[in-house]
Amino acid sequence: GQNIDQPTEMTATEGAIVQINCTYQTSGFNGLFWYQQHAGEAPTFLSYNVLDGLEEKGRFSSFLSRSKGYSYLLLKELQMKDSASYLCAPMDSNYQLIWGAGTKLIIKP
Amino acid sequence: IAGITQAPTSQILAAGRRMTLRCTQDMRHNAMYWYRQDLGLGLRLIHYSNTAGTTGKGEVPDGYSVSRANTDDFPLTLASAVPSQTSVYFCASSDSRGSGTDTQYFGPGTRLTVL
Question: Which of B16, B43, B59, B82 has its CA at 20 to 30 Å from residue A2's CA atom?
């Protein structure tokens, strides 16, 4: 079956760095997306990885290891506005996104 | 209009009633999607459309129907609502489906409560 595993909740301090891990099992693989979702709002696109390695985009970076079925999202210089849920979503062989339940990130001053 | 709009924003509905959730995009995207999001669960795909005139079933299609008469609109209909359909519904669109770089963009959502 297809499965996504992310921590349910994480807490970090403003200005610090946090890494949100995601492991996945899918039928085929066509890349992996990370989305951010603030409470009561829609998911918004953060990053896409299809090849192994690190993709950096400002304060956010995303890493992929296809052989391990593993990805992480790295957030640097945390700001209060980064308090949100972070959704890991690999794309399977049918180009369907398989969504994890998300990791709720709480930023404390 | 910029992006994707959904209507209504929220709705309380009596069980057994018929309801259509509306979704319109102005990005000329070929593919559109309907998801539901429930507490503690990931987004679940209800129906999708690769292009105008075609639709397909997702993970949880029972009790829902869709149509895609044109590129911009993708309404979702609950023929006879049941309390288990209480959820937040998101419409999304992407330039195409079947591409590894197919990024989905989401509407603001409709919060539906069925009593």
Answer: B82
Query: Model confidence over B9-27: pLDDT tens digits?
Result: 999 999 999 999 999 999 9
Does residue A20 contact residue A84 with C-beta atoms inside 8 Å?
no
A82-108, pLDDT tens digit by residue?
999 999 999 999 888 999 899 999 999
Residues 8-67 of B with CB under 8 A from A: 35, 40-45, 58
Question: For an interface test with B, which of A97, A98, A104 has the most B Cβ atoms less than 10 Å from its Cβ?
Answer: A97
Angle among Cα A71, A72, A77 to the nearest 5 degrees reads 160
Tell me which DSSP letter residue A39 carries: T
User: What number of other Cβ atoms are within 10 A of residue B71's Cβ?
Assistant: 18
